[in-house]
User: Fold this.
Amino acid sequence: MSQILNEENAIIVAATARMVVLGTSIAENAAVGIEVPDKFTEGQKIMKLLKAYRKKAEFDANELEALLYCLRKLSNANSFPTQSPLIGQALIIEVETGITGPMGPQGATGANGTNGTNGTNGATGATGAQGATGATGAQGATGATGAQGPTGPTAILAGTGEAQLYYKVLTIGDWNMDTNTSTTVAHGLADITKIRSISGSLRNDVDSSLHPIPHVAQQGDDNLTISVGTTNITIGRSVPSTQFDNTNYDSTGFNRGWITIIYEA
Assistant:
């Protein structure tokens, strides 16, 4: 079996996690009126490939390898362990939630939930007609908020006869890496033995660099580690660290990145 086929499950997990990160980023930008078409296009490419992967039984080995090479490149990950943390040999991706949310049907559903509030705000204008117009305009913004559905529980299913898996995405939040060598994030799971995979991505202060978590640096002093306790996830950096122990990673009031947990029901 070729190396790419040995990495199959790890590539699918990495591509799914990348799609979740893109969906979250699109939703955050849309909430403040910023369009990010490049991220939307990237997410659509991943989603189409994952849909195709659902029919992998119809592919020959060369076709499956070509699909996996594309997903591997789009996943933005640096390592693909050949022993996947997931249960089962076949991994089917359920793509009805996720990257399509920010631009499509999920947004419209969110808007319907808050139309009443928007109407009230409009009523404070000079005339009743102006208030109605205000409510219609607010519908788009509410749709973007609704698109944060990628954190929903039904995202990944295991192969036939195996346990069903779920995923959730957590924000890291404030982390001044120049001052603090680690930070913690509450995972909200009652039983950590149900966790099957955990990974993340970390960004610098100006969004010009994105690092996978965990990360093993070639130079040996810029590693990122991740561990799970009964209540919290702990993320740490190397001490000392040439890459992270500086003013490029010291902003606060700023989300440092995201953590993706895949777990069994």
